[in-house]
Amino acid sequence: DKEKEKLVKIAQGMCAKAYCNYSKVTVGAALLCEDGTIVTGCNVENASYGLTICAERTAVVKAVSEGHRSFKAIAVASNMNDFTMPCGACRQFMAEFGKNLVVHAVAADGRVLTKRIDELLPFSFGAVDLPPK
């Protein structure tokens, strides 16, 4: 569909903005908010690898900082040959905002694999897992 194609194209374009001096893996993300706004992100690496932030979390944090809380879909693209799947931390982070989020994982050649976040992380930790107040 046109919405998916648009997100994929934007995510692919965001790869050029990635700061990846160490792994050389460029990752771009395009997050579709419930109101139709598209918020972008790219990966930003750090010499202290644990401080690296993924494109998906960059986009979500940016969207939340702009007042968005509901998301419909995200496209994640990279320069890797296989589908660009969100890491476990990103899956958990995105699940916080809804288990029906659609994830379009994009390979460098343009192939797209589409899954819902609850398919990628079926047993995510959430507010219901916390003790009652």
From TrEMBL:
Cellular component per GO, a single term: cytosol
What's the family?
Answer: Belongs to the cytidine and deoxycytidylate deaminase family.
Give the EC number.
Answer: 3.5.4.5
Give start and end of each CMP/dCMP-type deaminase domain: 2-128
Q: Which organism is it from?
A: Amblyomma tuberculatum
Binding of Zn(2+), residues: 54, 87, 90
Which NCBIfam families does the annotation name? cyt_deam_tetra, PRK05578.1
Cofactor requirements of the protein: Zn(2+)
This molecule's function is given as: This enzyme scavenges exogenous and endogenous cytidine and 2'-deoxycytidine for UMP synthesis.
Describe the reaction catalysed, as an equation.
Answer: cytidine + H2O + H(+) = uridine + NH4(+); 2'-deoxycytidine + H2O + H(+) = 2'-deoxyuridine + NH4(+)
Q: Which residues bind substrate?
A: 43-49
The record's Gene Ontology biological-process terms are:
nucleobase-containing small molecule metabolic process; pyrimidine-containing compound metabolic process
Active-site residues annotated for this sequence: 56
One GO term in the molecular function aspect is: cytidine deaminase activity
Q: What is this protein called?
A: Cytidine deaminase
Question: Superkingdom of the source?
Answer: Eukaryota
Question: Which InterPro entries does the UniProt record give?
Answer: APOBEC/CMP_deaminase_Zn-bd (IPR016192), CMP_dCMP_dom (IPR002125), Cyt/Deoxycyt_deaminase (IPR050202), Cyt_deam_tetra (IPR006262), Cytidine_deaminase-like (IPR016193)
Q: Which UniProt keywords apply?
A: Hydrolase, Metal-binding, Zinc
